[in-house]
Amino acid sequence: MQTAIKKKTKMKKTITIALAAFILTSCGDSNKLEIEAELMNQAFDSSQSVSISRDVLDEMMQTLPSPIETANLITQSKSSFNKDLLIPAQNAVNFPNKYSQALALGGYGVDLGYINLNNKMLYVVEYLESVNTISKELKVNQFLDFSTLNTLAKNRNNVDSLIRISTENFNHIDEYLRSKERGDLSVLILIGSWVEGLHMFNNIAKENPSDEITKRIGEQKIIINNIYAILDKIDQVAYYRELKGKLNGLKDVYANVKISYVYKEPVMKEVNGELVIEDASESFVELTKKDMELIDKEITKLRNSIFIVYK
Amino acid sequence: MKPLLKRSTCIFGALILFFVCSGFYSLKKGDCTNSQMTATAVDQLKRFTLIQEFPFYMKKKKKNDAIEYKKQVITLNRGVRYKFYAVRNAEYEGLPILSIYNNEKQEFLLGSTYNPTFKRFYNELEFECKTTGNYCLSFSFLDGMEGCALGVFSSLVKE
């Protein structure tokens, strides 16, 4: 009897150990998958990886404008469409690594938004192709609904859908990169879109100078400071260190720009049961003509160095 | 007695391993959101374009603790109309509150989806931005209850 109990106990123990071993093995498999994913991530660039935590990077990224926001601001400036402001579509195949491709994806994202918002359907397909080419290189093309966008681009009544779907696609790419611990590439997409946007603002200012556009350019001091704050956290990677170096000239010019802020209590209204807040605060931007010229010189140099690449 | 103890130890060990391997330990804030919440968030956008979603989860506050807040600095642009709202996960008791402040230091409250004077909730708040700069979004749950929600930050493109 005692032997039978002992056998039963031994059997149960064996089952428990086997269960634990099974779980442990599954655990091992999951670790293996993680390592594989990590290796895949490293394949983006084998040199180094950023050491900043995902949460911190996610938080800091919100201080950079998205491509569609940038394109929207440019369109609001009411300047006429100028194709010469766009990155040449055929350049899409020339970007040599994941970093430059991520920057270019942001740049082309703004160009595509600018084209869409100006209803220039003639160029949509060409720039969608560029975005698709870079997305493939970055291995994020699965989030780009290329065929739907391509179909929508054939009718100018589809502009709203085009904007919505392309923005959703960009958001999915951003989420995916962040989930793969490659939020740094998302940062580059946003930096690329900001560089392209600032370059456009400067060209618009040269053609149609106004206080409004000058103020908009001066306000970008806030964004360049935000970009610097992020690059400071990830500059242990050579590429980000170099990029910071490339931005130095622009940062130095912006040091002359003065922005002051006067808080005034906002006006709150209820519209259809919802709260609408009208900001009443004001900001003042001091920017000389010489500063404008220097910003233009620096942004053109920076933009050409990252987007105008020939093989 | 001894085999029983050993068996318990094994089962306990197996359970620990199970929880560790199943990712139980890594249940993070924000993992409580679901596809239904995302669908509701998208429906509520209407004329606006989604810029970012912020999932947030908070545990119930202890009796003498202050209400917990989650902060997020965002940059808004002059001349743009923004819309903010929070979609609640109804499985949790907490009612989400989303507030916006004029800067990172939260110097002045510009608006909130909850008015404590009238104990009134708004589904969303629209903000007509007049000064480009860094603003601060703050997320919390009414009375510090446990809650899960999806904060949404959107802008009006092509007004």
Question: How would you characterize this protein structure?
Answer:
The complex is a heterodimer of chains A (311) and B (159). Chain A has 311 residues and is mainly alpha-helical. Chain A folds into two domains: 1-44; 48-257 and 288-307, no CATH class. Chain A is built from eleven helices and four strands; from the N terminus they run ααααααααααββββα. Chain A has helices at residues 2-44, 54-61, 67-76, 98-117, 121-137, 146-152, 159-179, 183-207, 211-234, 238-254, 289-307, and strands at residues 258-262, 267-271, 274-278, 282-286. Chain A has a two-stranded antiparallel ribbon. In chain A, strands 2-3 form a two-stranded antiparallel sheet. In chain A, a hairpin with a 2-residue loop joins strand 2 (267-271) and strand 3 (274-278). Mean pLDDT of chain A is 84; it is low at 14-40 and 42-46. Chain B is α+β, with helices and mostly antiparallel strands. Chain B folds into two domains: 1-27; 32-155, Sandwich (Jelly Rolls), CATH 2.60.120. Chain B is built from two helices and ten strands; from the N terminus they run H-H-E-E-E-E-E-E-E-E-E-E. In chain B, the strands form three sheets. Chain B has a four-stranded antiparallel sheet with strand order 1-10-3-8, with helices on one face. In chain B, strand 4 (96-101) and strand 5 form a beta hairpin. The longest helix of chain B is centred in the first third of the chain and has 20 residues, at 2-21. Classes of the chains: A mainly alpha (311), B alpha+beta (159). At the A-B interface, helix 1, helix 3, helix 7, helix 9 and strand 3 of A face helix 1, strand 1, strand 2 and strand 8 of B.
